[in-house]
Amino acid sequence: MYLKQYENGRTYIAKLNYQSDLLEEINKICLDENIKAGWINAIGAVSSLKLGFYNQETKEYVYTTYAYDEAMEIVSCTGNVSIKDGKPFCHIHITAADKKGKCIGGHLVGGTAVFAGEVIIQELLGEDLIRDTDEETGLSLWQ
Ligand code: ZN
Q1: pTM recorded for the entire structure
Q2: Can you give the CATH number for the domain in which 28 is found?
Q3: Is residue 1 a part of any domain in this protein?
Q4: How far is the CA of 143 from the centre of ligand 1 (A)?
């Protein structure tokens, strides 16, 4: 188990630009504002959605990426900020619904186009939260 205590720092609210890249924009905020640890929450809609999937059997850093080229509502988009390779890194998962309410979800990767995006980022202050390769899973996890 891994347990650390943090205090709330700055709170950011962002309205993302139409057709911007959802992951890139959130990453940019964290880099520009030097948010080293935090909590990310977003809602809105996307014009297209790109998701990743980690293969647990092969335990390789390979993502199978699915592309959905249709408008969807962001039902939930949540993630965290920590430090990877010496700079802020956002790890975000998303659930989105089509016009019938059917949801899909997964690991957010670059290539998702924002239709409307409302983001809240809560900075957390405390000990550095650093990601590095985890031998058991092959993932880059908190150390
Ligand atoms: Zn993930």
Answers
A1: 0.93
A2: 3.30.1330.80
A3: no
A4: 16
CA of 82 to the centre of ligand 1 (A): 13
Question: How many other CB atoms are there within 10 angstroms of residue 31's CB atom?
Answer: 14
Ligand 1 centroid to Cα of residue 105, in Å, is 11
The two structure tokens encoding residue 87: 């700079």
CA of 90 relative to ligand 1 center, distance in Å: 10
- Reading the block at residue 121, the tokens are 């980022």
Please tell me the total count of domains within the chain.
1
For residue 49, the enclosing domain spans 7-138
> How many angstroms separate the CA atoms of 94 and 119, rounded?
13
Q: Kindly give the confidence (pLDDT) of every residue in the chain, 143 residues in length, as a single tens digit, with 9 standing for 90 and above.
A: 889 999 999 999 999 999 999 999 999 999 999 999 999 999 999 999 988 888 899 876 556 566 777 889 999 999 999 999 999 999 999 999 999 999 999 999 999 999 999 999 999 999 999 999 999 999 999 99
